[in-house]
Design brief:
Low-confidence stretches: none
Bound molecules: zinc ion
Strand order of the largest sheet: 1-2
Largest sheet: 2 strands, antiparallel
Shape: elongated
Order of helices and strands: EEEHEHH
Distance between the termini: 28 Å
Strand content: 5-15%
Structural class: alpha+beta
Mean pLDDT: 83
């Protein structure tokens, strides 16, 4: 996935891996009855699940909350330390990745 690095705001390619088991059963009722006591996901074949949507959901869940380069290609200018950044201060506040983390911990 091509995402935006939350440290340097440059493009970052993130590879996603999903390893998951699904078991298909006849209908929704069977699915909800069996879903609690097994590890794999139980899916009803009626209505027919869409493989595309299934993949999309799985990949969305795999997306990193805060995509970041392991090492950013450009050194990141720190707001506090660099006066060149002051000019950019008029920009709306960028989302703080740590605030997002803190929100999740609640
Ligand atoms: Zn970066």
């Amino acid at each position: 996935m091509a995402l935006t690095c939350q440290r340097c705001l440059g493009p970052v390619d993130v590879s996603l891996t999903v390893d998951r088991w699904f078991r298909f059963v006849a209908d929704e009722a069977t699915a909800s009855a069996e879903d609690d006591d097994c590890e794999e996901d139980v899916l009803a074949l009626e209505p027919r699940p869409s493989l595309y949507e299934l993949l999309e959901d799985e990949l969305l869940m795999e997306l990193p909350l805060v995509p970041m380069h392991e090492t950013c290609p450009e050194p990141v200018i720190m707001r506090v330390a660099d006066s060149a950044v002051a000019a950019a201060d008029d920009e709306p506040e960028r989302k703080n990745p740590f605030a997002e983390l803190a929100r999740l911990k609640k």
